Amino acid sequence: MTRGKKLVATAGLSAAFVLGFASTAHALGSGPLNLDNGTGHFSGQWEFYPQGTGHGGLHVWGSVCDDSADGNGVYGQGRVHGLSWSSQRGDSNGSAAGCGSENREFYDSATTYSSYGYYQVCTDDLGSDTCDVSARLNR
């Protein structure tokens, strides 16, 4: 093999390795998200935006559902590292069974990058709400 062909082959293998690694790294920062707290559930997806895009935050989208008409509403909320839980987003019919849509980004406006975040489903019951914290969602 000539020197030129070796350089082209090496460059091609290097590019394939770098592109394969980059796509693998991105795949680790997204995926399905399914949570159930016993009276409500969330079914959807999550991803982290790249640094400098969409505040580099956690994007969550899907359905928040109240599974029982028990007089208690169900909502979802999220957060990223260092911040408190976001405002609540639930189904639009209050305490009756049904689903509402979720499509939000959770981010720290002082940064362009968030390392990890959380999303949870809560039941608006008597006293302190009952919440099921999701697994930590990593970039």
From TrEMBL:
<feature type="signal peptide">
    <location>
        <begin position="1"/>
        <end position="27"/>
    </location>
</feature>
<dbReference type="InterPro" id="IPR001190">
    <property type="entry name" value="SRCR"/>
</dbReference>
<dbReference type="GO" id="GO:0016020">
    <property type="term" value="C:membrane"/>
</dbReference>
<feature type="domain" description="SRCR">
    <location>
        <begin position="33"/>
        <end position="68"/>
    </location>
</feature>
<protein>
    <recommendedName>
        <fullName>SRCR domain-containing protein</fullName>
    </recommendedName>
</protein>
<keyword id="KW-0732">Signal</keyword>
